[in-house]
Amino acid sequence: MSDSRKDTKEQGISAGRIRELSRAFQSSRVFLTGYELDVFSVLGDEEKTSEEVAGAIGADPRGTDRLLNALCALELLTKSGDKYANSPVAAQYLVKGKPDYQSGLMHTVHLWDSWTTLTGAVRHGGTIMQRPTNERGREWLEAFIAAMHARAAVEAPYLVGKLDLTGVSRVLDVGGGSGAFSMAFVRARDGLESTVFDLPNVVPLTKGYIEQEGLSGRIHTVPGNYHNDELGEGFDLVFLSAIIHSNSFEQNQDLVRKVGRALNPGGRIVISDFIMEDTRVEPMFGAFFALNMLVGTPGGDTYTESEIKTWMHEADIAFTERINLGRGNGFMIGTKNQGFL
User: Fold this and answer.
1) Measured between alpha carbons, how far is 142 from 148 in angstroms, rounded to an integer?
2) What would the pLDDT profile of 20-61 be if each residue is shown by its tens digit?
């Protein structure tokens, strides 16, 4: 073995691994197409032929048969004779109406479209998608909010539990989407009320989620665009979860200054997002997510601790604490100085 081939092997990479990477999209696309066509829900708890499935989803019988075979190869379906059935994991997580149904995966289906533009986005330096994120239709928006809610509803109680809410009676949840974090805030402290500030086309969806939880009396909504509008005032805590990565550096500078004006003296800002190392190589998921923002937004990115501290300093907010939350995520917390104007 030549020295160069030996060195490559010792580094943990191989020609086989390179080929695996080049084909990794195929398994993802097979699964996403099965999910998008709702194959798993059509099968439910029954066995059906490919012709029966094709009729139910309105697709070509031969094309459907080949898709179902590939889903069997991925161990998402099983095959007995000419009939197909869901595997146990597909039956649990991929059938509409089941308690563990993963409705948020439709957002991943939509991400496929934006990620196919990555080469062009790298050349351009930002998204080349024709329509801005918030103008991609109600179906896209509902799938996005559902995906964010599915994740946040599980994580929010745990994450909010890491914050000291002593003295907090009014929370502003900027870009709060479904209101999942606001729900966690009001449940964590008696008497606390939260306001979700989000875009006018998002707020009706927010109200629906809040009403489902019976929290309309404690969670309020305000429609607006944080790029153009002020955030209000008199808040003890302003929470920004998964917000800064959608914005450019300059947009976040401006947003954090608005947060400063919305806070009471001594009030806190809590930024929840990826916190990149200065090299921007780690955490890996954050490095990949920076590309997700590149293909999907004009200037979004993932940011380092020092960059977030800069925004706080320029808004006369004193950085007080970083709480690591795993997978490169964290809370960056700052306190508004008493003399802020």
Assistant:
1) 10
2) 989 999 999 999 999 999 999 999 999 999 999 999 999 999
Q: What is the CATH number of the domain that holds 81?
A: 1.10.10.10
12 pLDDT higher than 70: no
In this structure, the answer to whether residues 170 and 87 fall within a common structural domain is: no
What is the total count of domains within the chain?
2
pLDDT score, position 340: 44
pTM greater than 0.85: no
- Phi, psi at 64, each rounded to 5°: -65, -40
Beta strands 170-174 and 48-49, pairing class: unpaired
Q: 66 and 170: one domain?
A: no
Is 189 a domain residue? yes
CATH number of the domain encompassing residue 229: 3.40.50.150
- What is d(CA 14, CA 9) in angstroms, rounded to the nearest whole number? 6
- Round to whole Å and give the CA distance between 312 and 334: 7
